Amino acid sequence: MKNSPLYIKCLSEESEVELHYKVHTSIDIIEEKLNTGNKITATDSRELFLGLLHFTDEHKIFGYATNTKVKFVVVLQTPSTTVRDNDVRMIFRKLHTAYCNAICNPFYIPGDPIESKSFDATVKDIMGI
């Protein structure tokens, strides 16, 4: 259960299974990047944003890993407007902050799916829904 998703949100339920597969594939890429990251210098080790992990005709998949090895994956539709790395970094910073707030709840059990209303509101805000 090490890489089990704690939260998944899609715009359409039809694409959820396909995106679930792509997210799991991206987690494997994140694991590879983290394992080869032992060669990184001290200044680079603070970089949490892993950049573009996977690119298809339909989607761009970006990754982010915290210092505690919590992984975030964001899947963006390719036909949408061009997204700069700084925009994606801001998305991950918002998600990381919302995640920290959600797990700091004394009633949250680590490893359980995230069911925080504030976390869900942040994700919906990022998605524009």
UniProtKB/TrEMBL annotation:
GO terms for cellular component: perinuclear region of cytoplasm. It is found in: Cytoplasm, Perinuclear region. It comes from the Eukaryota. Its main location: cytoplasm. Keywords: ER-Golgi transport, Transport. Pfam families: Sedlin_N (PF04628). InterPro entries: Longin-like_dom_sf, Sedlin, TRAPPC2L. GO terms for biological process: endoplasmic reticulum to Golgi vesicle-mediated transport. Belongs to the TRAPP small subunits family. Sedlin subfamily. This is Trafficking protein particle complex subunit 2-like protein.
